[in-house]
Design a protein that fits this description.
By secondary structure, chain A is mostly helical. Chain A has 16 helices and 2 strands. Chain A has helices at residues 13-21, 24-32, 47-66, 76-85, 90-118, 126-148, 153-164, 173-181, 188-219, 238-263, 293-301, 305-317, 322-325, 339-357, 363-390, 400-408; strands at residues 36-38, 235-237. Chain A has a two-stranded antiparallel ribbon. Chain A starts with 12 loop residues before the first helix and ends in a 17-residue tail after the last helix. Chain B has helices spanning 11-36, 42-46, 79-87, and strands at residues 50-53, 62-67, 70-76, 110-114, 125-126, 132-135, 142-144, 149-151, 163-167, 170-173. The chains are: A mainly alpha (425), B alpha+beta (174).
């Protein structure tokens, strides 16, 4: 955006006419064609593009599913079956939408882990990171509400348990939950308002994504070496280098998505959600979708209701202040010999919590969940602040091009003279 | 641009503050209907009582009826259930309350409860757990034969809804 090229010229007269009045082609050109990207970006940097694509997929499939869905307690479950059996390609659209949600979260978690590993949350990208956390929160709300819509047993009891989290709030808890329900229990008013909000929230996400990309284009991308771009030699043009790399990664990601859609469409779901909602019977074992399991394990690790809810929300809220908890001036874990171990320990603890969240809340599972919950918070509140003082970082390369060329062992070349070099993640 | 500092607030400052205040009040007034529309509506409030015939409920049986969209347990307690509930020391309870305070006087055998776990709203399973009351399958809370919580994470006893005996063999809940 601020990298607009004065040399950008349109040949077509009509387009030139438009451009003089609304410089949209110049904006696209400067943002997605000429935009300089660090030349050392690796494949972990392709998930932003993948996420944007998945958002569009979810919105498009969601809009057409809404044409066949009935948001009533008597009609919702049957209309989903109607979509599966009667609507032309309804099975395909629903399976893409349901598995698309999971793949969206998979990409988001990789994207966030990438940010934490390479220090993308650090100065000057704090606001960019915070906007990302806002998107993540909106995604969670949207996914949860969408999961309620088919009105199966898991839908109903997920809605009950999650809305009851608010009843833990002192004094106002009951009034707030009844306000959310529009009644005294999860029923028609809740289903209908969730439908309305599930439809609109993705557009709110799209809006924050625009802010996220805008902020990104102001401060520029971070890179695997975590050092600033200094000269033109450190960058290559977005097109074709980044756009081709993003496209290739997207195709690989879509192959995985397609495998789920066509070969294991219900693998990530729960069979109980094919039983119509019954307000008088709770299933013996209720679990959320896989992407919420770590938080569910944290909730259940705490034996006190209010504290459990506070810690659950705290586990996400802590992400907002990560830029200030991480005291190290060095961004990339490549040059942080201690941090990279703790990073992987965090990854292992989150995956471990996810596993424990899928197990019944008893005995060894609860004990293990408590240990991992403690590590999760210790990582942010103890490890990150202390490492900045304790750790001796490895020497940083003087520039991105130096780092790249040293690794490749090649002679210096002019900017853009070779294909974007691949760094290891 | 020069920075003006005046000791006295000017007439213009007053107008700015007054305008902003009226605007804020107006915005809040406009937001209230948008927020309040989500509260339980008139039709939901109208369906707030249920009549239950107690005759078919055998001793020892728990019957579940629906009231305000929620399950209500009606437990026809045995002598043993009542004695067990009354033998407990109040100090041992998480949410101390005497069994006598949870039933109607002279109707000790009838326990009426909202069948919603006070933790996160799951429906506990009857005649289960070491206290012979209810066990919540979601997060493992245990309730006794008076519906009082005996093991967390639930913080409170099962709620006793407002009800009255409309005759010796029927109750009106709500």
């Amino acid at each position: 955006m601020q990298h607009g090229e004065p040399t950008f010229q349109l040949k077509n007269r009509t387009l030139r006419w438009v451009e003089r009045r609304l410089p949209i082609f110049g904006l696209i050109h400067s943002s997605f064609v000429a935009y300089p990207t660090p030349r050392n970006l690796n494949y972990w940097w392709t998930f932003g593009g993948i996420l944007s694509f998945m958002l569009v997929v979810q919105i498009v499939t969601g809009i057409v599913l809404a044409m066949h869905f009935t948001p009533t307690v008597d009609g919702a479950f049957n209309s989903v079956e109607h979509i599966m059996r009667d609507v032309n390609y309804g099975w395909l659209l629903r399976y893409i939408h349901a598995n698309g949600g999971s793949m969206f979260f998979l990409a988001a978690y990789i994207h966030m882990a990438r940010g934490l590993y390479y220090g993308s949350h650090k100065e000057p990208r704090e606001l960019l990171w915070i906007l990302g956390v806002v998107i993540f929160l909106l995604m969670m709300a949207t996914a949860f509400m969408g999961y309620v819509l088919p009105w199966g047993q898991m839908s109903f009891w997920a809605a009950t348990v999650i809305t009851n989290l608010f009843s833990a709030i002192p004094i106002f808890g009951n009034a707030i939950t009844q306000w959310l329900w529009g009644g005294y229990a999860v029923d028609q008013p809740l289903l209908q308002r969730f439908y309305s909000l599930h439809y609109v929230l993705p557009f709110a996400i799209a809006f924050v994504v625009v802010l996220h990309v805008w902020a990104l284009h102001v401060v520029g991308q971070n890179n695997p070496d975590g050092i600033d771009v200094k000269t033109d030699k450190d960058t290559v043009a977005f097109t074709p280098y980044a756009s081709m790399k993003d496209s290739f990664a997207l195709v690989c990601f879509l192959i995985l998505t397609a495998w789920f859609v066509f070969y294991a469409p219900n693998y990530l779901g729960h069979p109980d959600n094919y039983i119509p909602a019954n307000p008088l019977q709770t299933p013996p074992h209720i679990v959320p979708e896989w992407y919420f399991l770590p938080y569910y394990a944290i909730l259940r690790a705490i034996p006190n209701k209010l504290l459990g809810v506070v810690v659950l929300f705290g586990s996400i809220a802590v992400l907002f202040i990560v830029p200030w908890l991480d005291t190290s001036k060095v961004r990339s874990a490549r040059y942080r010999p201690l941090y990279r171990w703790f990073f992987w320990l965090l990854v292992v603890s989150v995956i471990g919590l996810g596993y424990l969240g899928s197990k019944p809340p008893e005995g060894i599972y609860v004990a293990a969940a408590r240990i991992l919950t403690i590590y999760y918070f210790a990582h942010f509140f103890v490890v990150l602040p202390l490492l900045g003082f304790i750790e001796t970082p490895r020497p940083l390369p003087s520039s991105i091009s130096e780092a790249v060329l040293k690794k490749k062992g090649g002679a210096p070349v002019t900017a853009g003279g070779v294909a974007a070099p691949e760094g290891r993640g | 641009m020069t920075v003006e500092t005046t000791a006295e607030p000017s007439r213009r400052d007053f107008l700015y503050i007054a305008t902003a205040t009226v605007g804020a009040v107006g915005a809040a007034a406009a937001a209230w209907p948008l927020i309040n529309q989500m509260n339980p509506d008139a039709s939901v409030l109208a369906l707030s009582s249920a009549e239950v015939d107690l005759k078919p409920i055998a001793v020892g049986q728990i019957v579940t009826v629906k009231w305000r969209g929620k399950p209500v347990f009606i437990f026809h307690r045995t002598k043993r259930d009542i004695d067990e509930a009354r033998a407990v020391k109040l100090a041992d309870l998480i949410d101390p309350q005497a069994d006598e305070a949870r039933v109607k006087k002279g109707k000790d055998e009838w326990l009426v409860l909202v069948g919603v776990c006070t933790h996160l709203g799951c429906i506990p399973l009857g005649h289960q757990g070491q206290y012979d009351g209810w066990f919540c399958p979601c997060h493992g809370s245990l309730y006794d034969t008076s519906g009082r919580v005996r093991r967390g994470p639930a913080p409170l006893n099962l709620e006793v809804p407002p009800y009255e005996f409309s005759s010796d063999t029927s109750v009106k809940i709500g």
